[in-house]
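> tool_call: predict_assembly(chains=two)
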Amino acid sequence: MVGVLSFLCATAAAQEKLPKGNFETGLFQPLRYGLSENIEISTHPVLMFFIPNFSVQKRHPNWAGLALVSRHSLVVPTPLLKMVTKKGVGGFISPEFDIPLMIALKNEIQLKRTLNDSWILSGTAGLTFSYCSKKLDKRTTIDLPVVFPRLGVFYNGYGINFRLDFAGTLLPRLDLLTDLNVLLLPGMEEGFAFEHKNLLTWALSNRMDIQIGYKLIFGEYPFGVQWHLFPLLDILWRW
Amino acid sequence: MKSKRSLIRTFHTLWFAGLVLLSCEPLVTDFRDIEDAIPYEASSKTNIQNSPDSLLVMTWNVRFGAARIPWFGDSCGDRVIMTKSEVIAHLENIADYINSVQPDILLLQEVDVESKRSGYIDQVQWFLDNTHFNYGAYASMWQAQFIPSDGLGRVDAGNAVLSRWEITDAERIQLPLRTDQDGLTQYFYLRRNILKTRIDVPNRDFYAVCTHTTAFATDDTKQKHIEMFYETISSIDTNAVFIAGGDLNSVPPEATTDYCMSDICSGESFHQAGDDPEHKEGSYFNNFTEEPLLLQSLYNEYYSAIEPESANSTGHFTHSPWNTESNNTTYWDRKLDYMFSSNSLSGGMTHQGANQLSDHAPVSAVLGLP
């Protein structure tokens, strides 16, 4: 579940343009591949068996002086949710409920502005649609930060997200990524989550980075609103 | 300019490091040995008697508003998460019963406060707002952001004291943890307590003490819990009046101690060669030599709601794990719920008619005030 949380957290970390033919992956982050100079595909290779997932990102010609990127992701959490719908330890969902086929399609548009040689500001807007083969019982929610607002789209039918990223270089080998992510589930009682992340990336070599940071979350859950603070840690490899 | 940038960078680094260090929140709440309980107040107050010469006191394990549903943990069932409307209906039945009895002080066990299994209702506040009580105090025995087992999710459950009069002081006294569990199970398991309250009964120094001792321990944890309960009420000023009780999960002296076969679920086996465990957890009251006599000292030292000679009669049994899928019509088969006092108790009653409202029957008595 820690891996799943990290996977769900990781999207904003994949900021850098990946050259054609290159790979990059992390302990918790997806495997990215530069299919061409403008198209990048990604999937999480381990989680693929539990949460089939696939993402494609395309760089478009600049718009009003801003770099334009679109990203489309398909996620099927059904196998993992069925695995954790069980009696005893590891039962995140009560076995009294059935988990149907669930598919989410997330579409995002990102605009980037380079502020100077080392800092980039980007804004992202996204819309996620979901499909469930039968109505989900609301008691099946996993009321945890990061997880709840993302699985919330399956109870609501759709969700909206906005993100602001500020990324750049602090020191020659040390990068910083700061983001603010807003997840909205219009019409749901538990309709919002604000997530802020600060992530330092230390380049160990040309092929390996280490990341450390935190994620601060303020969100609505079925029991009310709550703050959460989590550590983030990952190692990235590229080749 | 350079020093300003350096200062900003230093500040940012310190802020960042501080947040990273702070960012490991525990999933399960640990409690100090003694800490303040959580005070509650009804949204609207009812009138109170100025100088009562007796109090009607009652104890009730309300099973977190699950009534008699076949819950997975204690009655051979497979239910885990109730709907909010289901819980409200159960709570309304309990509140109707409380309002019909009209106790002055009520000791509650297994009250949920915003738990997933019971529709995230704050049951302490709900009872205060739907009965004649004005004040409450709550001490959690199980508080976790998430229990990753059986779909339980978020849990906060514990003991509460409800009163017509203001509760001026309330403390949560931690009971020892079970020692017969592995570390991981113990981390996510219950942290039982004694809730000791001081109540502003006019012209009296009055205490109400509520507890729910271990049910499933197979070591001597139950003995430690009962001893600590005894010590807590023994330490109350001898000039003060107290009512103390709850679900002690112990049978009276000379009672039957083995309920394994009457509580057995399909697919289980006990008492046969090679059975591990040999006895069903929570259904066997003879795990160590002194266990059948654990309550003797309480009976010896204090007045009890139900006299010891009547405690083993069927009319005073307070519990059975019977559920709605059972064909058996015996709702009660053992006594687990008790009240003791420094002062004389009369009219002790076991409310066996409330057999569909919880898996425990309430026990009440009239406490004469000096």
